[in-house]
Amino acid sequence: MSGSNTPVASPDALDGAARGALRRHILTLADSKRILGIRYSDWALGGPSIESSVATSSMAQDEWGHARLLYAMLKAWGDDPKEVEHDREPDAYTSLPALDRPQEDWAELVAAMLVVDSALTVALEGFSGGLFEPARSRVPKMVAEEAFHLDLARAWYKRLARGTDEGRSRLESASRSILPGTLAWLAPADDAFRALVDAGLTHDGQTLVGEFWDRCGGSLELVGVEAISTEPDREGWDDVRGRGPGHPGEEAVERARGARNRALLVE
Amino acid sequence: MRESVYDVFARKERGDPLQHIGYLDAVDDELARVYAWKTYDEQNWFEMCVVPRSAIVPVNRTDGPFQSGRARSERPAPDMSAPQPYGGDS
Fold this sequence. Notes:
The complex is a heterodimer. By secondary structure, chain A is mainly alpha-helical. Chain A has one domain (14-262): Ferritin, core subunit, four-helix bundle (Ferritin), CATH 1.20.1260. Chain A has helices spanning 16-41, 50-73, 81-86, 106-128, 133-145, 147-161, 165-186, 191-198, 205-221, 250-257, 259-262. Chain A is globular. Chain B is of the alpha+beta class. Chain B has a domain at 2-58: Ubiquitin-like (UB roll), CATH 3.10.20. Chain B contains two helices and four strands; from the N terminus they run E-E-H-E-H-E. Chain B has helices at residues 29-39, 65-69, and strands at residues 2-11, 19-26, 47-52, 74-76. In chain B, strands 1, 2, 3 and 4 form a four-stranded antiparallel β-sheet that branches. In chain B, a hairpin with a 7-residue loop joins strand 1 (2-11) and strand 2 (19-26). The relative contact order of chain B is 0.24. Chains A and B meet through helix 2, helix 4, helix 6 and helix 7 of A and strand 2 and helix 1 of B.
């Protein structure tokens, strides 16, 4: 981080580049939490035990609660959170690419639980450690709630990594496939992210990636995945949305928006 | 790998007695503590802990509810092989 250490109470205090970058940052955090909640909810009745299903159901609720708080921050930009949450098309979503499609088995979910949820938490820690006052006051509680997500991810990751050859293989494959896009998302190499860091609104990319490996490296090594041989995939980077190419599927976005049953509401 | 029954205890406030609030099945302590927190988090507990049921020593009787529950305190973990290796939609 660089520049002044004066907390920023409102985006109006920022220059244009940082102001836009901060909105993008909040939106990608919120969208990622919203779609991650949907991915967890897919397993609310399908985990390998009742307890693991209850845990993913609870984590889905955590993610949706966090998303709601993050979307609400966008009011400071003049956004209507209701429109942002309910009226966007899939190609406007800025969520992490690893969440674009459902996880097909428990190993894929555990890999996402470790890699994606941890990347999100590291990003949130960087955000809460920056100068944006609403993040400093609201995000630490989210980060605290995430501690059990990481514990669950590590415990299941270890169990699968030390289990059958097939389980380990699926875990490794799933981890390797989502890591490059997730690392690119965590530490974008673009002007918007540089503006964010220069304004002191989050940690620099190197710090964030270091935190990520501190958190996940021990687990990933169990399946032979190492930081030194894992590079971010920046191909097709979309600097408007702050993520790689693609978008979540229509079905997930329909659920995120609540569109299917919205017509039934009497308001 | 075998699953064990863990009993879950919690207290609302620092000075409150520890209450038995439920139980769960888990293959190890790490998963047991997460499952406990995520299953029994409807209240704002001051403190929660889990105890493997097999570690509970009967004091005044051997036929109480806890002891009768010991018969099922350890069982094989769910079969995670085919056809749905990791839970899937089964």
